[in-house]
Design a protein that fits this description.
Helix content: 25-40%
Largest sheet: 7 strands, mixed
Oligomer: single chain
Bound molecules: adenosine-5'-diphosphate, magnesium ion
Strand content: 15-25%
Low-confidence stretches: 6-10, 351-356
Shape: globular
Distance between the termini: 45 Å
Mean pLDDT: 92
Number of strands: 13
Length: 356
């Protein structure tokens, strides 16, 4: 039996039921579609009639996905929710309800957990996502945070990784590599090695770190792509472009060619790469946690997609093409002949790759 936080003060400072009550009071207000939210054995919802239900879940482990010494609880919460919102965005859905399960180690305070929820709910607020439940346990080692987010979509308006066709154009929203650059800046600051600190402007540093800490899930773009049936496949960039493109290709049974010169890089990321003598293309290909959308579009819908992106003020770049499976993943447009695109994304249970 797992250890639970009992209503006695098991951890010295935290008790399960007062904590849940406090969280329900602060963050558990719901609208009319929730017949029963936090407080009963299960939540009861009235989904929009005729819609499909999307479900996504993420488990975050302390010192694997986040570190309490380098991120605030607000930031950890925000990012955990943003990652789930991004998954619903990549399916073209409308995010709706959130469940949060926690395993809390001794020593954590109610104020810290409150800040965690404040961060989560601040990411959810623009989409009116409602907190409807969760579970709470003690942990013998480290904080565990599991989020489950539901979404809805109309039948026929769901984006998957499976539909890319040979000849489709490959698009990506926003800019790539910023989050990895921000993470590297944070780890340099943590190591306090002055000689490593790149000579870049303060605004660039702040921008890159902010992109790492507070990514913007592309919910509006995902919904529009699905509603107009423009995208043949889509994925959100959580692991890095190379790895996430590989997922689309594997699931669609196709290959792809990426044009290195078309990869969208922010001015801050370019200046960061230059200051650290890094290849910005590598940052864009390997960088995880950008939470941009990567999607494919049949050539006839290219103009429609560009117009759609303009309508929501989202940068959009065509970065390549879907090719036959036998081509595999290829990088063109950098110096020299086309070469194999090496998958350099983060993989659990393996040593983390180093973007050079
Ligand atoms: P059970 O014993 O059935 O698991 P709990 O006492 O754990 O019930 O939960 C009581 C209510 O509080 C439920 O509605 C549950 O969804 C909610 N809840 C429990 N933990 C959390 C949490 N960490 N965040 C949000 N809601 C929670
Ligand atoms: Mg419970």
């Amino acid at each position: 039996m797992p250890t639970r936080l009992s209503s006695r003060k098991l951890t010295g400072r935290l008790a399960e039921f007062p904590l849940i009550e406090d969280l329900a009071h602060r963050f558990g207000q719901t609208g009319r579609s929730v017949l029963c939210g936090i407080g009963d054995d299960a939540a009861v919802l009235r989904p929009p009639p005729g819609h499909l239900l999307l479900l996504t879940t993420d488990l975050l482990a302390e010192d694997v996905h986040f570190t309490c010494s380098t991120a605030t609880f607000d930031e950890i919460g925000y990012k955990a929710a943003a990652a789930n919102l991004s998954d619903i965005a990549a399916m073209g859905g409308v995010p709706r309800y959130l469940l949060v399960s926690l395993a809390i180690p001794a020593g954590r305070t109610q104020a810290e957990i409150r800040r965690l929820y404040r961060g989560m709910m601040s990411a959810c607020r623009p989409y009116q996502v409602e907190l409807i439940g969760g579970d709470t346990s003690a942990s013998r080692q480290g904080l565990f945070i599991s989020l489950t987010l539901t979404g809805t979509a109309k039948p026929g308006q769901v984006l998957t990784r499976r539909g890319a066709q040979v000849g489709d154009l490959l698009y990506v929203t926003g800019t790539l590599g910023d989050s990895l650059a921000g993470l590297q800046l944070l780890s340099i600051a943590k190591r306090r090695r002055v000689e490593e600190v790149p000579a870049i402007r303060r605004q660039d540093r702040q921008y890159l770190i902010e992109r790492h800490r507070r990514p913007s899930p592309r919910v509006a773009v995902g919904r529009l792509l699905a509603a107009h049936r423009f995208a043949t496949s889509a994925i959100d960039l959580s692991d890095g472009l190379s790895g996430d493109l590989a997922h689309i290709c594997e699931q669609s049974g196709v290959g792809a060619e990426v044009d290195a010169s078309a990869l969208p890089l922010s001015p801050a990321c370019l200046r960061y790469a230059m200051a650290r003598h890094k290849d910005p293309v590598q940052l864009a290909l390997a960088g995880g946690e950008d939470y941009e959308l990567l999607f494919t579009v049949s050539p006839g819908n290219g103009a429609g997609v560009r117009q759609l992106a303009r309508s929501v003020g989202c940068r959009l770049s065509c970065i390549g093409k879907i090719r036959p499976k036998r081509i595999g993943l290829r990088l063109v447009g950098s110096n020299g002949p086309p070469r194999k695109l090496v998958v350099t994304s983060y993989r659990h249970f393996e040593a983390a790759p180093q973007a050079q």
